[in-house]
Amino acid sequence: MCELFAMSSRYPASVSTSLEEFARHGGLTGPHKDGWGVAMYEGLDVQVVREPAPAASSECLRFMRERHLESPTVIAHVRRATQGEPALRNTQPFTRELGGRIHVFAHNGDLVGIRDARDLGAWAFRPVGDTDSEYAFCALLESLREGWLGSHPPSVEDRVAVVTRFAESLRRLGPANFLYSDGELLFMHSHRRKHGPGESPRPPGLHVLCRSCAGQSEGPQEVVLAASAPLTAESWRPLEEGEIVVARAGKLLRRVSDASVAVA
User: Is 2 a catalytic residue?
Assistant: First the structure.
């Protein structure tokens, strides 16, 4: 199975330190050697770099870390292939345009039978590759499409409701940890994952860490990090099975647990 990493920050921030440890999981200290990708938002658009090769030995990823590139929202993925060969078309994160914004998605798990699930049919959006993860992303965008085709973005409440229903559908098919961003909100859904060789998937699927430190003259820097496994010695909070956390500009905005939404 794969591993996920994400960041939401109040001001653009570098993720070089986190990416260094995360990259080690991609073929050095972990078995996720079938590809890697990083998506970094800049306004409503995204810089995306992907390779169907181990992250741990990637000169391209090392260059990105050494440049200390900054972004307010980052989604990254290291892959261990379960569906689809190691190829660029199957390498995450995946991106699509909807409503004049670039949407980004990355998934960790194995969604058996997703192409036959009636409530996850994808029509306007089609996969380029062969993975269950990309099909899931297309299905999510189809669910979101009507709300994003208006003159204004859908409300936060409407977006949370759609993603919550989508996550509930995915969980019926198998491990369904995912990260999704529309350029404003970052959604982190935790389900189950394998924590060691030969183990069956179990919670937690994701961990979250919140930081606040002196930053800009306008106010302190605030950061929310999410990762499949903690990347530092800090107190990362394991998310509950089926929990969704929503962040915006470095703050926890919503928490969804047992289909109830609460302000964080």
Answer: yes
